# Entry
Amino acid sequence: MTAVYPGSFDPVTLGHLDIIKRASRLYERLIVAVLNNSSKDQVFTAEERTGMITELCVGLSNVEVASFSGLLADFVRANKASVVIRGLRAVTDFEYEFQMALTNRSLHDEIETVFLPASLQYLYLSSSVAKEVFMLGGNVDSMLPPEVEKRMRLKTKQNQYNIKR
Ligand code: ADP
# Structure
């Protein structure tokens, strides 16, 4: 069975990687699907985000990384997948996630969304929290893989982005 784990991953955090590892144990094939959105607030391009996740997943032989735009339901169908993986953190994720799951099922009735609970140490971790702490000079060792932190540092040097507050 093929599962798709979609998200913005801007950038990928230790919380995302934890979900990728856990989901890869549950399914024969896992496709991490990086949303190619054109939001002005994004730090990394879809290509950069896809590249970083690919590097971090080299040890996971059943994990593939791809980027997509448009409807997730179409991407799932095109890849002959039947499961969408989402991570659930605090209760605040629930309303939105439930709405998305039902919407995706209404577009493609064979899609099941499977929620994996966040691990305790990553319960309050999001890409935006990690970016904010990084920009304010805080320690992000418990939030981001060292490779990602390095890329963030390079971006700051090139002064390519501003974090909106
Ligand atoms: P979005 O699709 O909303 O842009 P993200 O790229 O931030 O989402 O995250 C993709 C998926 O990973 C979502 O299902 C989100 O709930 C989940 N996720 C994000 N951070 C964590 C975390 N720390 N632990 C578990 N799941 C997470």
